[in-house]
Amino acid sequence: MYKIKVLVVDDSVFMRQIISRLIAEDTALEVIGTARNGIEAVSMVKELRPDVVTLDIEMPEMNGLEALIKIMDQRPTPVLMLSSLTQDGASATITALQNGAVDFISKPSGSVSFDLVNKKLELVSKIKQAAQIPLRNLIVNNITVPRAGLVQKNNAETELMKEFDQILALGTSTGGPKALETVITALPASFPYPLLVVQHMPPKFTKSLADRLDRLSSVRVVEAKDNELVLGGTVYIAPGDYHMTAIQKNREVRIKLHQEPQVSGHRPSVDVLFDSIAQIKNTKQHFILMTGMGSDGARGMMSAKQAGAQSTIAESKESCIVYGMPRSAIELGCVDYTVPLHLITSRILEVTGASKR
């Protein structure tokens, strides 16, 4: 039986042993090597050709972010980052996800080894999932459009932004941070509608994601706050561990966050967001599903379509890191447009009419 070959990279001998043991306990996986820094990791990826790499971020000589970039340039391989739960760790992890890493495992500070034992199921599951990612999709998603630098924009809450007749909702999971960067940074500064986003991700990480996207984008990107007024020209990222909904009162739409039980194993849930957007009256609604494992959002998209959604868009298999959520919606027959990642923004501009502005 073929075993998934894993390279474990961490500067701590103890951590390398713990991670290797957890992986080896699954008969479908095999640790073919360990590295103690980024320099060793890059060399061993080329020599051993692993199916998946688990990569720590903080290491001497060459850190995980530097090693990741070299790995994706020299021999693209699915990489899972091992991240701390600090704000700095979250920020570095988001950078890694937008530089080619396919997912991450969070590791709390303190008694890390015991926490990792509890994370065995997540670790093994994500390794198996990463090993199934088509190499072509990994390479396509790692192509970065050159950017002039940080975008300067006007974040003033103008009267124009407070009124809109269309609203968009987007859901994504594994592979989402990179996909969101591709879509959101391509929106023009003149884009007049709000876009509400659920990205499956823990607290702190969603804040780092929103901050990074805001720095790179012409539109305003924020982590959503409870009771916040929804404005046009703004992207709202659901905070980790909170469901995000949109509530309409008179001519206003406001964000409502809550911690009701998980839906299909998720909080935030795409289905919860989509269901709330579908309730907004006198406003054209557009729904988008991108890369991600599972089926979150498919039912919500189906319900929204039946309720009269203006358009539904799903990322096509050819560009998805994980073709789960879009496929589930397509199989329900509720998707109007199936397009590769690099064409999603142009389709958004087309269906909303924003390309003509």
Mean pLDDT: 91
Helix content: 25-40%
Report the strand count.
Answer: 14
Strand order of the largest sheet: 8-9-7-6-12-13-14
Number of helices: 14
What would you report as the Rg, rounded to the nearest angstrom? Answer: 20 Å
Tell me, what's the shape?
A: elongated
CATH superfamily of the largest domain: Methylesterase CheB, C-terminal domain
The CATH first-level class of the largest domain comes to Alpha Beta
Biggest sheet record: 7 strands, parallel
Distance between the termini: 57 Å
Task: Classify the secondary structure makeup into a structural class.
Answer: alpha/beta
The name of the CATH topology of the largest domain is: Rossmann fold
N-to-C SSE string, H for helix and E for strand: EHEHEHEHEHHHHEHEHEEEEHEHEHEH
β-strand amount:
15-25%
CATH architecture type of the largest domain: 3-Layer(aba) Sandwich
> Can you tell me the residue ranges where pLDDT is under 50 for at least 5 consecutive residues?
none
- Number of individual domains: 2
InterPro entries: CheB-like, CheB_C, CheY-like_superfamily, Sig_transdc_resp-reg_Me-estase, Sig_transdc_resp-reg_receiver
GO biological process, one term: chemotaxis
Pfam families: CheB_methylest, Response_reg
Main location: cytoplasm
